[in-house]
Amino acid sequence: MKAQRLGAWIAVILGASYFVIPLIGTIEFSLRMRRGEYSLDAYESVFSDIQFRETFGYSMLMALFTIVFGMLLVVPTAYWVRLRLPQMRPVVEFITLLPLVIPAIVIVFGYLRMYNSSSYLPLTGSTTGTNALLVFSYITLSLPYMYRAVDTAMRAIDVRTLTEAAESLGARWTTIMFRCIFPNVMSGVLSGAFITLAIVMGEFTFAALLNRPAFGPYLQLVGANKAYEPSALAVIAFSITWLSMGLLNLVSRFGKARPAKA
Amino acid sequence: MSTVSTPMASSVPLINKDRVIDWLGIAPFIIFSLLFLIIPTLYLVAGAFLTPEGDFTLKNIGDLFTPSIMSAYWISIRVSVASALGGALIGFFLAWAVVLGGLPASVRSTLLTFSGVASNFAGVPLAFAFLATLGRTGLVTIFLREWFGFNLYGTGFNLLSFFGLTITYMYFQIPLMVLILTPALDGMKKEWREASQILGATNRQYWTMVALPILWPSLLGTTLLLFANAFGAIATAFALTGSSLNIVPILLYAQIRGDVLHNANLGYAIALGMIVITGVSNVLYLMLRMRAERWQK
Predict the structure, then answer these.
(1) Where does the sequence pass through the membrane (chain A) (predicted)?
(2) What is the pTM of this model?
């Protein structure tokens, strides 16, 4: 038993160093810009770069649109499948898993062929259209995570009783949706939102091939041209992931601590 | 159940209208997924079997078997297999350590939280992190040189290579394995171990004759999932090696950008090849997961 515990400690320490050493390496490298001493010059250089601010803001905005429109699509669907179409559940679940199976680069390749400027729906012909297509692609990409998060939260509430109670009080379907269902699955909505934020902020493939000025392609560009800034950017990107996942953990813990009463 | 059936029974004459409304409820989702997921994919699949003029052909599929495209697939498969196996092996030991190794509960929750973050830390920033660590002037490279006089790059090591890409991918592969395998190991009942010990089994016999036969669908299934995960990834490789390492997603990227193969429909065939490979490994994963869940009831 003692040998087993020793083995377990060794495994965890080796595993932890695999995770932690690259992080230390990145932080250390990002401080090395000034010769002979550690400084925050790389971060200053990053933050003063107008392109950093523009692309970061652009990706944040895209993430926000993705979350809002994604949830408007996912929550009613998950609700409706639970309430009226349980026989469609396997089909809907299968569709939400497809983005994990079909590589992103294949999906975007399809978009570029289907929505080019000479097609029936020339989304890539205009800036607004391309931005919309990017948001749609991000919704597709985060569909597996959003749907799962929302559906798990919905399992904890009695959708049918809530709906019938609201209906008998004379609520219209918009009232049922936004004042009954959404507030009750908020923990799921927020978990889905944070993981979507983490995915969208660093996403590269869609944004690069649709030629949009997002944070992912900007990171790649800086990586190809500068020495110390990429590390500073990696630290920033990792903090965003940490922040999103930390908030996600917090939300799901609160969601569990406060069981929804139907 | 009776409360459900009563309103249904009273609305018998309206049943057709109800049906229509039922289906309208998920229409937005179905239309969205058709437009932005299913039809674009089918468009490429169909295009793989057409000539630029629109006639049926198998030539595009046949052209996949030219040396340059085959070598791209081969490198991709090798990197994905290596990072999946490495990730699965290390991930298994980590999951084993926190579930069965008798470690404090805090170690377990820390590792699981960290795995949640690290499995999502992919893409371009991951490449930067490894360049800063194992690149020519990276922390570990310099540390080894100055403290041990060991020149990492003198041994032929190169981060911008098959091996470098593999260890970089393992950064998100290992945590994914930990996340999926921990519940499977939690499902190993204590009674099984006790029963085998009472019957006089050694630790080794327990693992080879009880634990692994139960766990192998989970282990193999998750390894397949890791394989597909690595196969479709592009951003990390692109930022790490530029286009010097010719993996399939990077070849496809170049084809989309500039038709480097001088045949648009050959690009569709490459995409089809990727879908087939990730599709088959995901289907096998789902089948194995169903098998694994037999024991979790």
Answers:
(1) 7-27, 56-79, 91-112, 132-150, 185-210, 230-251
(2) 0.88
Residues of the domain holding B166:
62-296
Considering CB atoms only, which of A84, A143, A202 is closest to B25? Answer: A84
Mean pLDDT of chain A: 89
The CATH number given to whatever domain includes residue B271 is 1.10.3720.10
Residues of A in contact with B139 (CB under 8 A): 21, 24-25, 28-29
pLDDT in tens, A148-157: 999 999 988 8
- Tell me, yes or no, whether A155 lies in a domain: yes
What digits encode the pLDDT tens for the residues B189-247? 888 888 988 998 888 888 888 888 888 888 998 999 999 999 988 899 988 877 778 89
C-beta separation of B95 from B111 below 8 A: no
The pLDDT tens digits of the residues spanning B111-134 come to: 888 888 888 888 899 999 999 999
Q: Are A202 and A237 in contact (CB under 8 A)?
A: yes
Distances (CA, A) of A179 to A155, A163, B29, B91: 18, 11, 21, 43
User: Would you call B117 and A77 a contact, using CB atoms and an 8 Å cutoff?
Assistant: no
Spell out where A71-167 has E strands: none
